[in-house]
């Protein structure tokens, strides 16, 4: 018996990195999953590998009309949506605040922050039919504490944390829980990209108490817990998964 048997999930940014890991884990625990991304080839390949319980859709998470389509298709394919994982995100420019342009700032806000607002809004009518929905918003350790040279990212991830609390209060009357997850340093294409690696070394360096970065699967474990009924009394809460980095 799977921990997500009978659940229908939407996971954004599922073509690679942590999102792909969440998709794999959810399928292995019995969920039916619609996952979305702007990376079409990777998404289609993953869906083909995972079989009939996984469906890929191209979606820009900052587009309200794309959100409408995704929810309609997910419900038509599998039934009312009981889980939403807002995972898609970008780092944005790695440079000082005063060198960051308005366009660069807005792009990060659109993909990391506006997307979470649009996703929760779009999914609510479908999720209300299930009476025990769970929304998991992926923020960051950068939504708990600040880091230099990534102001738009930090601002957007603090906003995801706040949005999660606002929605948790509003959606509780429908039996829908909303929590935020705050990963520290996770080994994915995002952190391996040029610039991010150097920033990571400078800001985090060797200071992680557990002495290493995490693998995406270690974040999938907490996302699975929050998505499942096992976390039935958690809402509006922050789940930090950072190897102890923020404790110091
Ligand atoms: N890797 C880390 O150390 C780390 C730490 C804290 C938080 N996070 C957050 O975790 C989430 C996943 O990050 P990851 O490390 O797996 O990165 P990743 O780059 O490997 O994956 C992110 C996915 O989001 C997709 N995406 C980007 N823009 C999109 C858009 N407009 N519409 C739809 N999809 C879009 C990308 O194509 C990609 O597949 C992000 O929200 C990120 O900010 C990552």
Question: Can you lay out the helices and strands and say which pair or pack?
Answer:
Elements: E1 8-12, H1 17-28, E2 32-37, H2 40-50, E3 54-58, H3 64-78, E4 83-86, H4 102-128, E5 134-138, H5 151-171, E6 177-183, H6 189-192, H7 196-203, H8 216-227, E7 238-241
Parallel strand pairs: 1-2, 1-4, 2-3, 4-5, 5-6, 6-7
Helix pairs in contact: 1-8, 3-4, 4-5
Nicotinamide-adenine-dinucleotide binds at residues 12-13, 15-19, 37-39, 59-62, 87-90, 111, 138, 140, 183, 185-186, 188-191.
Summarize the structure.
The chain has helices at 17-28, 40-50, 64-78, 102-128, 151-171, 189-192, 196-203, 216-227; strands at 8-12, 32-37, 54-58, 83-86, 134-138, 177-183, 238-241.
The structural class is alpha/beta
Indicate the CATH class.
Answer: Alpha Beta
Annotation, overall tally of beta strands:
7
Unreliable stretches covering 5 or more consecutive residues:
none
Q: Based on CA inertia axes, which overall geometry fits? A: globular
| Full CATH superfamily name | NAD(P)-binding Rossmann-like Domain
What summary fits the major beta sheet?
7 strands, parallel
Question: Can you count the helices?
Answer: 8
Order of strands, widest sheet: 3-2-1-4-5-6-7
Tell me what the CATH architecture is: 3-Layer(aba) Sandwich
SSE order: EHEHEHEHEHEHHHE
């Amino acid at each position: 018996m799977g921990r997500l048997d009978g659940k229908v999930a939407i996971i954004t940014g599922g073509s690679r990195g942590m999102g792909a890991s969440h998709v794999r884990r959810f399928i292995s625990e019995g969920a039916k999953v619609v996952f979305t991304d702007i990376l079409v080839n990777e998404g289609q390949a993953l869906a083909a590998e995972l079989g009939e319980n996984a469906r890929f859709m191209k979606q820009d998470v900052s587009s309200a009309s794309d959100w409408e389509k995704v929810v309609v298709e997910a419900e038509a394919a599998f039934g009312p949506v009981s889980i939403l994982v807002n995972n898609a995100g970008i780092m944005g420019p790695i440079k000082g605040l005063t060198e960051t342009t308005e366009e660069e700032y807005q792009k990060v806000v659109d993909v990391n922050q506006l997307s979470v607002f649009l996703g929760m809004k779009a999914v609510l009518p479908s999720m209300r039919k299930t009476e025990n929905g769970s929304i998991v918003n992926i923020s960051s350790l950068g939504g708990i504490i600040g880091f230099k040279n990534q102001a738009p990212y930090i601002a957007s991830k603090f906003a995801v944390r706040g949005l999660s609390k606002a929605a948790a209060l509003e959606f509780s009357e429908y039996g829908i829980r909303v929590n935020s997850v705050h990963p520290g340093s996770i080994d994915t294409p995002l952190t391996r990209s040029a610039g991010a690696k150097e920033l990571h070394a400078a800001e985090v360096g060797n200071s992680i108490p557990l002495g290493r970065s995490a693998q995406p699967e270690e974040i999938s474990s907490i996302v699975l817990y929050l998505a499942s009924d096992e976390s039935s009394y958690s809402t509006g809460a922050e789940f930090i998964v950072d190897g102890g980095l923020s404790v110091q």
